[in-house]
């Protein structure tokens, strides 16, 4: 019997949830490195390395989704959850790059915003861990992730208003761009949290 025939009669059942959890584990480490970078404690290269590792996890998951005969969640939901995590990690990497390009170091507002993102991602990890088992716990963790980003929005608004008073226009524009990038990471995180809840509703 050829390999092709064997594949036809023996459907693949890769552990796609396990792969998704592996991706968010790398994302958590990357965002924690991002938090550390914002505090001035970690080199930017650690964030970039984590982003590359997360990309590898995403590619492995997407390949498994294509090959799987059945999946515990809708393949589209698995794809969107993975893609959303990728957006979060890419956002962190790009924020670091932009700061380096503008030779700006993270200020206090960025430290607090990065911390809120980190807390949100850790809640997402708890949600992912509960997927396929305790859907109530997964929903609760996703809702907790959303709440952390509401705090980030308040930090963002205050920081933007305070920067307007700065006399150095270059500094004002530079930090406002970095704040916006942090908000974009937050928005990507919110989309992942929303998708977790949507996926659970679909499976109910």
Would you kindly provide a written description of the structure presented here, covering whatever features stand out?
This protein has 204 residues and is mainly α. The protein has a single domain, classed as Phosphate transport system protein phou homolog 2, domain 2 (Methane Monooxygenase Hydroxylase, Chain G, domain 1). 82% of the residues lie in helices and 0% in strands. It contains seven helices and no strands. Helix 2 packs antiparallel against helix 3, helix 2 packs antiparallel against helix 5 and helix 6 runs antiparallel to helix 7. The longest helix has 35 residues. The protein is elongated. The termini are far apart.
Question: Which keywords apply here?
Answer:
204 residues; mainly alpha; Methane Monooxygenase Hydroxylase, Chain G, domain 1
